[in-house]
């Protein structure tokens, strides 16, 4: 089972090289939009603070900030190909990317903590907690698709 996709080839009639940036941007946009759509729906269905604490929106805001932090640095800047000037250079770009990923992971872990700590363990309606978690998970996947889906190494 370890190499069942080793012989799989993308169809030769599709030229991924010209469209990979567009495809990655559209898929990332759909994930990002879906994440915010889920949390807006939960906020409208459960408008009071007792049903869904308004402080739980902080995770989604931090994930959005981390999304912009991660995608503000190009892959060439991280490798050191296209960014050598400035105060920090390549190391600064790597630190910025690392901090962005740490904020993103922290938001994802906090959303799981909210899901289980505020909704699953007390055995109340779980939908608001699931909405907070799925918002952060979809923004996380959006960031990964947009950051790494545009590189040529992954597309062949």
From TrEMBL:
Its GO CC terms are: membrane
* Keyword check for Transmembrane: yes
Q: Where in the cell is it found?
A: Membrane
UniProt keywords, alphabetically: Membrane, Transmembrane, Transmembrane helix
Q: Taxonomically, which superkingdom?
A: Eukaryota
Q: How does it sit in the membrane?
A: Multi-pass membrane protein
Q: Which residues cross the membrane?
A: 21-40, 55-74, 95-120, 126-146
Q: Where is it mainly found?
A: membrane
Asked whether the keyword Acyltransferase is assigned, the reply is: no
User: Mind telling me which InterPro entries this protein's record contains?
Assistant: UPF0220
In the record, the note on similarity to other proteins reads: Belongs to the UPF0220 family.
The protein depicted here goes by the name Transmembrane protein 50B
**Name of the gene:** tmem50b
């Amino acid at each position: 089972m370890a190499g069942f996709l080793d012989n799989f080839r993308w169809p030769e009639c599709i030229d991924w090289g010209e469209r990979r940036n567009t495809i990655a941007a559209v898929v990332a946009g759909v994930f990002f939009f879906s994440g915010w759509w889920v949390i807006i729906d939960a906020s409208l269905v459960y408008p009071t603070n007792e049903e869904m604490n308004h402080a739980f929106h902080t995770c989604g805001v931090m994930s959005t900030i981390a999304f912009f932090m991660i995608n503000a640095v190009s892959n060439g800047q991280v490798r050191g190909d296209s960014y050598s000037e400035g105060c920090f250079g390549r190391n600064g770009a790597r630190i910025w990317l690392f901090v962005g990923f740490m904020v993103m992971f922290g938001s994802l872990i906090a959303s799981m903590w909210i899901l289980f700590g505020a909704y699953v363990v007390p055995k109340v309606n779980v939908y608001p907690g699931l909405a907070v978690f799925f918002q952060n998970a979809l923004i996380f996947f959006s960031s990964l698709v947009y950051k790494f889906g545009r590189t040529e190494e992954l597309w062949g």
